[in-house]
Write a structure and sequence with these properties.
Length: about 260
């Protein structure tokens, strides 16, 4: 189980990342495209470097998996998984709906997660065995009696391949008309944990994109799984579902089949 000290460290990592990001938001910074054609900015790299420096100093035996600077000590049972800016496109566009993601993964399973929005100063934190908090106060997902009443979120239709797009459209047809929200990346999962969104459906995610989300959503009463309904771990294929009301999982899977 993650300790209170682990959570305190994760919060300090988020503080350090936010201190690196805020001076650059809507300011002047450099950017470039990575080999996978995604964008990386000066803020992404500065935030991850700040977090890694703390971990190297305080947890030298733990592994680190970061989006921008790769992995060290990959065989360690405890791995800190970092995404300094999840939603770089939103950061570039000056939209404060990106977030810093910090996860502790033990033996391949996410056990602690933080979603931090450094501009709005909003932070969700979850760890196994404890309720999720939003700015240090407990939050809960909301009930969703019928899939047809659900608010559905996803980052972009462009992130679905042809087969994945067909599955998503099956789900989209099952939810309330005009209740599909695009954009938001990790921020949508925080809103789900706080009871504002019912379902998030995405594909093509990597471990640093989803590891922190699992403890946050599940500690608030929701559930996260792959598109077959299996729990998410370090080996999951990147097709991700988050539901505020776990009772709707079978309905979602049926709609996507």
């Amino acid at each position: 189980m993650p300790s209170a000290a682990d959570l305190a460290l994760a919060n300090r990592l988020a503080d350090a990342a936010g201190a690196a990001i805020r001076p650059l938001f809507r300011g002047a910074w450099s950017e470039e495209r990575k080999p996978d054609r995604s964008y990386v900015t000066e803020a992404d790299r500065a935030a991850e470097a700040a977090m890694r420096a703390i971990l190297e100093a305080e947890r030298p035996g733990d592994g680190i998996v970061g989006e921008e600077y790769g992995a060290v000590r990959e065989g360690a049972a405890r791995q800190w998984v970092l995404d300094p800016i999840d939603g770089t496109t939103s950061f570039i566009a000056g939209r404060p709906i990106f977030g810093t993601l910090i996860a502790l993964v033990r033996d391949g399973w996410p056990v602690l997660g933080v979603i931090d929005q450094p501009i709005l100063k909003e932070r969700w934190a979850g760890r196994v065995g404890e309720p999720t908090t939003f700015n240090a106060k407990p939050v809960r997902t909301r009930p969703c009696p019928e899939l047809a009443d659900a608010v559905l979120a996803s980052t972009s239709p462009n992130l679905f391949g042809e087969v994945d797009a067909d599955a998503f459209m099956g789900l989209a047809k099952g939810v309330a008309e005009r209740k599909i929200v695009w954009g938001g990346d990790c921020y949508s999962y925080g809103l789900l944990a706080s009871g504002h969104i019912d379902v998030v459906c995405e594909a093509g995610l990597k471990l640093h994109d989803y590891a922190a989300l699992v403890p946050v959503v599940e500690g608030a009463g929701g559930t996260m799984s792959d598109w077959q309904g299996h729990p998410l771990d370090a080996g999951s294929d990147g097709r991700v579902l988050a539901l505020g009301d776990p009772a709707r999982l079978e309905d979602v899977l049926e709609a996507m089949s």
